[in-house]
Specification:
alpha+beta; 3 helices; 45% helix; 21% strand
Length: 94
């Protein structure tokens, strides 16, 4: 599912060449903060690399790992933790 979503994002970026985005990756709360920060940064960078492989200009992409600092769900359940492990994008320029 993630690859299909990333392919749609790549096509959208190709159709909107002026758009600049930040890829924001997150983790659940398990593990040390430092490790979660590293993991989320690597996750964001992996998404950037995938988009570059789809002919998206790297100058249009920024990777940022947020660790466990911005949960969208409870970390007390398996489903909540899964929801918190995510990558989102935000348009930061146009």
């Amino acid at each position: 599912q993630s690859i299909a979503d990333l392919d749609v994002l790549a096509e959208t970026l190709k159709d909107n060449l002026n758009v600049v985005i930040e890829l924001k990756s997150h983790t659940d709360y398990r593990g040390a903060d430092a490790q979660n920060n590293i993991l989320s940064q690597k996750r964001a960078e992996a998404v950037v690399e995938y988009l570059i492989s789809k002919a998206i200009d790297k100058e249009k992409l920024t990777a940022k790992g947020y660790g466990s600092t911005a949960p969208i769900d409870s970390n007390e359940t398996l489903e909540g933790r899964q929801n918190n492990r995510r990558t989102e994008f935000e348009i930061i320029g146009n």
